[in-house]
Write a structure and sequence with these properties.
548 residues, alpha+beta, Immunoglobulin-like, 60s Ribosomal Protein L30, Chain: A
Length: 548
């Protein structure tokens, strides 16, 4: 910032060396002008500090040869100030080791200053305070303002860490089925009355009655599936299976007590080699491994049947104990069960939580409105079900609360680790300010979230170019901020995809940097509707200094 500042006249000191300090100070008001520049013109947070370069040009015959001057940069903000490193200059006759300011030549000095970010610096100003020393006299000079305001757009980046809570496997709708079956005599397709009274049919009917009485259930499909045991030839059994499917379809009404058969699906499966293999595998037949080996070696049904018949002793047992169970037709009802709603889960989690399984408790926790309630439910799941997912989520709740030490304790208690856990450990180090250790863990995790967290470290360190490179191709909400800080407004604008208050605030910053007052007003009006608190931020933001 170029400022022509009327300072106290060191040139006038040469005229008043014999007078008192007070009279010299009065004479210094007649000083020649000096030039002060500040780069950047408006201070800006970069990384973890607020850096600036101050350039002061002293004109000819300004700095009295016998004077020493101590200049101190001070950042002044609401509620306090930061005093920077002092710089000392001396006239040509002073015998010391400070920078010499010539009396008869124009002299320029450049100094780098840096301040820490503290809340309130948005409306700060940078001033230079100077004290001139001549012999035993000290003259305090009026302070000079060299920069006004501090840009803190970097703080729009979210750098507390990216992580994702473990999901539950709770199903809002459960797909189930219930079934019964009738058995046929060998080579017969007649449904016997005794089979309509079998335990299998009775159990099926009882299940249908319970389903009808429970409003959470709905029948989504019905079907009859008929089979023939793998004996007697493939062609013959295919026809027999068809006949059994037709007879079972006719028996559907009797079996189900009048359930509609309009959408009944009827399937004829022919020889039931799949059922045969399963029945043999679950049986106690002495040579069942031999039978299973035959089934794996041959796919042709005729060859399979021949090879099994050749094992006469085995075939007798199969014919007696296996084939009869495969001469069948199945009655199947496919069901949809509407699980507990979010409101129901919340109520049950308060009134009768012990009847809920792990997935239901985890879903209730995910649905909870506040962190305390979530933590209460996750702790219950961790204790009752020894749930690693619940413990991991407790760690993330601690990170949400900026409590990395507690998060670490939860992570250390997990039974196993993976890339998400390693990333969470990195976030713990990030929140503690251990950036190098955090970076090692993020690189080890190697996930997309870990890469975004590495970009956050770049932002915190003020390396916006590195952050932009990491975020390229992602949908990170920090991309727009980084591109704004790099001055690439087109990319910044293209990176914003949502219509939230934060995004509209960033759109307003982009418009302000483009000098588009109408767009600034448009987007800040949207921010005001969505987040009055964020809109209030704009009143102190130097990005909008020219639009108030």
């Amino acid at each position: 910032m170029n400022r022509i500042v009327k300072l106290l006249a060191f040139g006038a000191m040469a005229l008043s060396l014999a007078s008192c300090a007070k009279s010299r100070a009065e004479q210094m008001k007649l000083a020649e002008n000096i030039q002060v520049d500040c780069t950047p013109e408006v201070l800006a947070l970069k990384g973890q500090s607020i850096p600036a370069e101050i350039t002061v040009t002293f004109p000819v015959k300004y700095f009295e040869p016998s004077v020493t001057m101590v200049v101190t940069p001070v950042l002044v903000y609401e509620g306090g100030e930061q005093v920077g490193k002092s710089y000392t200059y001396q006239g040509e006759k002073v015998k010391d080791n400070y920078d010499v300011i010539a009396f008869k030549e124009e002299t320029t000095v450049r100094e780098n200053v840096s301040f820490e970010y503290v809340k309130g610096v948005e409306t700060s100003y940078l001033e230079l305070r100077a004290v001139a020393y001549y012999k035993d006299n000290a003259i305090e000079l009026p302070a000079i303002k060299v920069a006004d305001g501090c840009n803190v757009t970097q703080l729009m980046a979210v750098t507390g860490g990216e992580y994702t809570f473990r999901k539950d496997a709770y199903q809002d709708v459960l797909q189930e089925s219930t079934e019964g079956q009738v058995l046929y005599n060998v080579n017969s397709a007649v449904v016997k009355n005794s089979e309509l009274k079998s335990e299998s049919v009775k159990d099926f009917q009882a299940a249908l009655e319970k389903i009808e009485a429970n409003p959470r259930y709905s029948v989504t499909g019905t079907k009859v599936v008929a089979y023939a045991s793998p004996e007697g030839g493939q062609e013959f059994n295919a026809k027999l299976s068809d006949k059994r499917a037709q007879s079972a379809m006719k028996a559907w009404d009797k079996v189900t007590g009048g359930m509609s058969a309009d959408d009944l699906q009827t399937l004829s499966m022919g020889q039931d080699w799949e059922g045969f293999q399963e029945a043999v595998a679950n049986s106690n037949i002495e040579d069942k491994d031999l039978i299973l080996r035959v089934l794996s070696m041959y796919s042709d049904p005729a060859v399979r049947e021949r090879e099994i018949r050749n094992m006469s002793k085995v075939y007798t047992e199969v014919n007696k104990n296996i084939f009869p169970e495969l001469r069948r037709a199945r009655f199947i009802a496919e069901l949809s069960y509407r699980n507990y709603s979010a409101d129901e889960l919340e109520q049950m989690s308060r009134d009768s939580i012990d009847i809920l399984d792990e997935e239901a408790v985890l879903r209730a926790a995910a649905n909870a409105d506040d962190a305390a309630r979530k933590a209460e439910l996750y702790k219950f799941a961790a204790k009752k079900f020894n749930s690693d997912r619940a413990t991991y989520n407790l760690a993330l709740l601690s990170l949400d609360a900026d409590d990395p030490e507690q998060a670490e304790a939860y992570l250390e208690s997990l039974k196993s680790s993976d890339s998400d856990v390693i990333n969470a450990e990195g976030v713990c180090e990030l929140q503690k300010g251990n950036y190098d250790e955090a970076a090692k863990l993020f690189k080890k995790a190697g996930t997309a979230e870990a890469n975004e967290n590495l970009a956050s470290i770049d932002i915190i360190k003020g390396d916006y170019a590195a952050a932009a490179k990491r975020l390229e191709g992602t949908d990170s909400h920090n991309k727009a901020v980084v591109y704004i800080l790099l001055g690439d407004l087109d990319k910044a604008e293209a990176s914003i995809t949502c219509n939230c208050a934060r995004s509209n605030y960033l759109r307003a910053i982009i418009a302000a940097r483009r000098g588009d007052a109408a767009q600034v007003e448009k987007y800040l009006d949207k921010v005001a509707e969505q987040s009055p608190a964020m809109r209030a931020r704009a009143d102190k933001d130097v990005e909008f200094a020219n639009y108030r």
